[in-house]
Amino acid sequence: MQPRASKEEILAAIKQVPLLSPSASQLLQLTASTDHDIKEVIDIVKYDSALTARVLKIVNSVAFGLVHEVSTIDRAVGYLGERMIASLALSDSASALFHKELQGYNGPKSELWNHDLRTAIAARAIAAQAKEEMNPDLAFTAGILHAVGKAVLSDFLHNSASELLGEIDDEEVDDYLAGEREVLGIDHTEAGYELAKNWELPDTLTMPIRYHHAPADAPEEHRALVYAVHLGCIVAMMCGSQSSDSLQYRLDQNYTQYFDITAEQLALIVLEVNETFETLHDAMLES
Amino acid sequence: MSNIILGVGEFGASNNPADTVKTFALGSCVAVVLMCPKTRTVGMVHVALPESKINPDKVKTRPGYFADTGIPALINQMASMGCDPKGRGFIVKLAGGAKIMDPNSTFNIGKRNALAVKKVLWKYGLGPVAEDLGATYSRTVSVAVATGEIILSSPGRGDWKL
């Protein structure tokens, strides 16, 4: 397959991606750290009037079905949880990336966000099945960010999907990542990693972006979290995705070193992903 | 013409020739399409999981989630539209049940869904006359009520008839 762009062009495009808003950046950094208090989250939201308004609209949306209106940001943050607050700030701050039409992957508008949200919900549920203690909120946030590189590569992959899928079917390339590398010299995990570094995100969030399709290659201290996102991404694709790369990746079966997941538990995780996705998706649409 | 769009775990039927019954982006889920030639009714259920026993409460709000409750619920709805209550004479077509590359048995929910759907259909004496199951691609399913023609599509793979 003919190259569509050079790696240098992609890296230059990544440098042009706007930085995150100060509140989104602070919330991602704060919620990724182990020693923080929810009061710190509330303080960041309080100083961002647009985010405050959005959080209050969402918590009071019909989708959540609360009997009494929540009118203070303290209660709203307590109800939605810090992972949801950080995700909302990210979604609004980088809306142009997460909600754009994924033309290079034949995907409609918001496809990336929808996949990321399902991945986040799944990764959080999978974290609860970890053999050693894992922070489910961190797995959620890492899931939201994991595929951001696709937003960059999409602009360079126009009309490549059909040919790329043909090469995977004919076993000429190993998976969609290898196809991206063949066409662009870089895949969406590396592109996302470069973008996340520009955004100065902490390693706990950049490592799942970089290694979510090759979790065994992740540094040991981040590997369990990366496996949670790896599995979350796969569950999200199983739950439905409208992009050409859906299901075109491999399951790393060494996840069993980190998680005990039976077929029945996985079925419950699928159920949770579908239900929670519907609620959050509807709440965000309403607001 | 109107589209009847079915989300995950939803089911629906129509005998209006102007309608199209549609469900988007099946991954490991299975779309069960039932057609009653006598009344020219088309029904579909978007099954997400094999068995309702994992969450009986969910059956009350959305029986279509599971193969063992979704197919009977669809047949009941079609019976209320004049079709045979036991599904006699129905034409059955199936699509979906995809998998990730290199799945282990735990992660191959698509295969378990397809098997569970066939097991339930078998209890009614029904079996698919056409199916597009398994493999590693998502499927959108669209059924024209007027003709019963089923079109499948997948991003980057175009569309094809079932």
Strand pairing plus helix content of chain B: what structural class? alpha+beta
How is the CATH topology of chain B named? 60s Ribosomal Protein L30, Chain: A
In helices, the fraction of residues of chain B equals 10-25%
Provide the number of structural domains of chain A: 2
Cα-to-Cα separation, first versus last residue of chain A: 44 Å
So what's the CATH class of chain B?
Answer: Alpha Beta
Q: What is the element string of chain A, with H for helices and E for strands?
A: HHHHHHHHHHHHHHHH
Biggest interface pair, counts: A-B, 35 and 38 residues
Q: How many DSSP helices of chain B? A: 3
- The class by helix and strand makeup of chain A works out as mainly alpha
Rounded to an integer, what's the Rg of chain B over CA atoms?
Answer: 15 Å
Shape of chain B: globular
Number of helices of chain A: 16
State the fourth-level CATH superfamily of the largest domain in chain A. Hypothetical protein af1432
Low-confidence stretches of chain B: none
Structure characteristics:
heterodimer; A: about 290 residues; mainly alpha; 2 domains; globular; B: alpha+beta; 60s Ribosomal Protein L30, Chain: A; about 20% helix
Give the helices and strands, then pairings.
The complex is a heterodimer of chains A (287) and B (162).
Chain A: H1 7-16, H2 22-32, H3 38-46, H4 49-59, H5 73-80, H6 82-93, H7 95-98, H8 111-127, H9 136-145, H10 149-153, H11 161-169, H12 176-184, H13 188-198, H14 203-211, H15 220-238, H16 263-286
Helix pairs in contact in A: 1-13, 2-3, 2-6, 3-5, 4-5, 6-9, 8-9, 8-15, 8-16, 9-14, 9-15, 13-14, 14-15
Chain B: E1 2-6, E2 11-14, E3 19-26, E4 30-36, E5 41-47, H1 56-61, H2 67-79, E6 91-96, H3 109-123, E7 128-133, E8 139-144, E9 150-154, E10 158-161
